[in-house]
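User: Teach me something about this protein's shape.
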Amino acid sequence: MPDICAIVLAAGESKRMKVPKMLLPYRDKTIIEKVIKNIISSGIEKIVVVLGSGKDDILKLTGKLPVTNCYNENYKQGMLSSVKYGFRKLDEECGAAMIFLGDQPGIEPDVIKAIVEAYRNSGKGIVMPVFNNKRGHPLIITGKYREEIAGIDESGTLRDLVHKFAEDVHEVEVKTQSILRDIDTQEDYSNELKQIT
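Assistant: First, the predicted structure itself:
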């Protein structure tokens, strides 16, 4: 899928977790390794990993993988700054970006493929997975919105883009709540591990 690239957001400070959550064990890997493995297994070949807090420790893992690692020195400004940075690091040939949270290891390759297929078939510029009427990640945003994303106020979020261009949004219903589950607390982590045992 050379026209669809992945941006993996792995720059957060893990404040609520109190330990670097990207490095926590998940199956036979760490959380960040599992996220990247799922993306590779889905067929997406170009992957940009946006690092921030704890970058050196994460890089020891992601540096061995077929991804482009980059460091967002403004990561403390929040997730949007990492999204913007990730878009700046994409190759020009990337027609769209699929944005992944680095703490969602439960999103399997088949789910990723279903979202990609929906993007290709919908003709829409923004495609979001939905479970029980709740929107989740990863979402796909076409490259035509690069400048629009760059211009979002730092106090804003990607939701601002989604609301502004609501007519260009396509929702794809998926059969798993993994698109809604991220890991912010020890309880979240425990619940995620229960999904795989």
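Now, about its shape. Helices lie at 31-42, 55-62, 79-88, 109-122, 146-150, 158-164, 186-194. The mean pLDDT is 93. If you'd like, I can walk through any region in more detail.
User: That's plenty for now, thanks!
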